[in-house]
Write a structure and sequence with these properties.
Number of strands: 18
CATH class of the largest domain: Alpha Beta
Number of domains: 2
Radius of gyration: 25 Å
Distance between the termini: 46 Å
Largest sheet: 6 strands, parallel
Number of helices: 18
CATH topology of the largest domain: Rossmann fold
Strand order of the largest sheet: 3-2-1-14-15-9
CATH architecture of the largest domain: 3-Layer(aba) Sandwich
Structural class: alpha/beta
Helix content: 40-55%
Length: 466
């Protein structure tokens, strides 16, 4: 099967944070899992580089917008090596010429649903959008806690309301949004659907893609940025990758829970407007908080993925995100908890098991089990990364209990045949674990399988924290 998977494109107004690290590691695990099952996968990520937030952040930093965007785009590109992401990962920037051309073509094809209107409303720079009454609490944005600006100007509007019935029909399919309560949330939004402003006056915001045929306006960032999902595939050329992976493949978008309006409503309506197949599925994860509070620089509780990798290592970071951060709900993460999870699951868990089993196997020259080179048939991840990881660690616990019960390190001295058979059984268990770890902790899985085949105890997989 041809499969397409994409993350959202993070804004380049700050360093990468743990929430996006969770998103891209989840997507990478799915991409690797599908590839191991024989699917042909196109995996996309990148950076969103236009809009008011970025323009103002660059000014504050005393840099040109281009210089500012280049710096942070490189910071996100570094995640590929830091988080051990697939070599096949594609990276698109919304400042890329191919994306600019595609965004302007999307505008042209949507023009039947676009008209100029004069509008006055409360605008949140952080959200990059005009707020509804429900999104304002005590006079402030309910997400950012900042007072919105009162703006009055002429903008182009996309007639989102034209697609109310089609969106409700699309969302009636229970498979298009995971988890289901996010689908219900999307349906509730659609029932109160309003048309959306899709441009800004260039005199107020110069950092954006020009509206075709009207140099006085630039495209609203949430209109043009969404086009990256197909511009990365070469659209508007409908042959090649776009035809292979979008039109004739299975498409999945991975996003945070605050993206429902954009991913499952705005983008789907845009696709309907131009007659392109809708996204097959969108998966939404929750937020990562710390110490019961939202992470913020002012509180000093921000956790960087680069800090995680520096302290624990790449595969350990993937383990912490996939097993101990909830797949779909909000999670609370602190350094103390991370230390506990690392020590219990990795140092005293898989690391200890592999060391004990392979020390015995090497000492008594136990040959690899017959299935050491076989391609494993893996249980599906199906978006529940926690359950998939827990299944692996249940098997680790079972092998630990087997070792304690059978005591092969003693038995081999009294009954060599039975002792060797017990060690061979344990090595077979390591093969199962190695294969199961391949999509989620690929380096660790490879080390375990290599150790079994070479019958040699590897270096300590996960050192104790100092």
């Amino acid at each position: 099967m041809n499969r397409y998977i994409t993350t959202t494109l993070p804004y380049v107004n700050a360093d990468p944070h743990i929430g996006f690290a969770l998103e891209i590691v989840q997507a990478d695990a799915l991409a690797r899992f599908w590839e191991l099952q024989g699917d042909d996968v196109f995996f996309n990520t990148g950076t969103d580089e236009h809009g008011q937030k970025i323009f103002e952040a660059a000014e504050k930093a005393g840099k040109s917008v281009t210089e500012y965007a280049d710096h942070y785009a490189n910071e996100f590109k570094k995640l590929k090596d830091a988080l051990g992401l697939s070599d096949d990962l594609h990276f698109i920037r919304t400042t890329d010429e191919r994306h600019v051309r595609a965004a302007q073509e999307m505008w042209k094809r949507c023009e039947k649903d676009i008209e100029m209107r004069e509008f006055e409303g409360l605008y949140c720079v952080g959200c990059e959008k005009f707020l509804t009454e429900k999104e304002i609490e005590d006079g402030k944005c309910h997400i950012h806690g900042t007072e919105p600006q009162l703006l009055k100007e002429k903008n182009y509007f996309f007639k989102l309301s034209n697609y109310k019935d089609k969106l409700l029909a699309y969302l009636s399919d229970s498979s298009v949004v995971i988890p289901d309560w996010r689908r219900e949330e999307a349906i509730a939004f659609v029932k109160e659907l309003e048309d959306v402003s899709v441009s800004r006056e260039k005199s107020r915001l110069s950092w954006g893609i020009p509206v075709p045929g009207d140099e006085s306006q630039v495209m609203y960032v949430w209109f043009e940025a969404l086009v990256n999902y197909i511009s990365t595939l070469g659209w508007p050329d409908e042959k090649g990758d776009f035809g292979k992976y979008w039109l004739n493949g299975r498409t999945l978008q991975v996003a945070g829970k605050d993206q429902v309006r954009f991913q499952s409503i705005m983008w789907q309506a845009m696709l309907m407007s131009v007659g392109i197949k809708n996204t097959d599925q969108v998966f939404y994860h929750g937020f990562v908080n710390s110490g019961g509070q939202k992470m913020s620089k002012s509180l000093g509780n921000v956790i960087s993925p680069y800090e995680l990798v520096e302290k624990y290592g790449t595969d350990a970071t993937r383990y912490l995100l996939l097993r101990h951060v909830h797949s779909t709900e909000d999670s609370d993460v602190t350094w103390e908890r991370l230390d506990e999870w690392y020590t219990a699951g990795l140092v005293n868990g898989v690391g200890n098991l592999v060391a004990r089993v392979m020390k015995l196997a090497e000492s008594y020259d136990v040959p690899p089990p017959g299935n050491a080179d076989a391609q494993a048939s893996l249980p599906p991840i199906e978006f529940d990364f926690n359950a998939y990881m827990d299944g692996i660690w249940r098997r680790i616990q079972q092998l630990d209990e087997y070792m304690q019960r059978e005591e092969p390190f003693k038995r081999i001295k009294t009954d060599k045949a039975e002792g060797l058979e017990a060690i061979r059984f344990l090595k077979g268990g390591l093969v199962e674990i190695g294969h199961a770890l391949n999509p989620v902790m690929p380096a660790t899985g490879e080390i375990i399988l290599k150790a079994v085949n070479e019958n040699k105890k590897p270096e300590n997989l996960f050192p104790r924290l100092s």
